[in-house]
Amino acid sequence: MNKNVGHIDRGIRVVVGAGIIAAGVYFQNYWGAIGLIPFITGIIGWCPAYKLFGLSSCKVNQAANPQ
Asked: In the chain, what are the domain boundaries?
């Protein structure tokens, strides 16, 4: 599994995901669980939607790491 989420994108995803989770906890609402998606994709550095559409925000050439 090659990484397809760059450093800036990862940081934004982690911060936004944590914010959504915190809002869900604060308002005692299960909608905060949606924040797990950007949070986890930011932590692992791989996004299935990016893979589906052939996108990547990584600056590193990953051609040396075939799938």
From this structure: 7-53
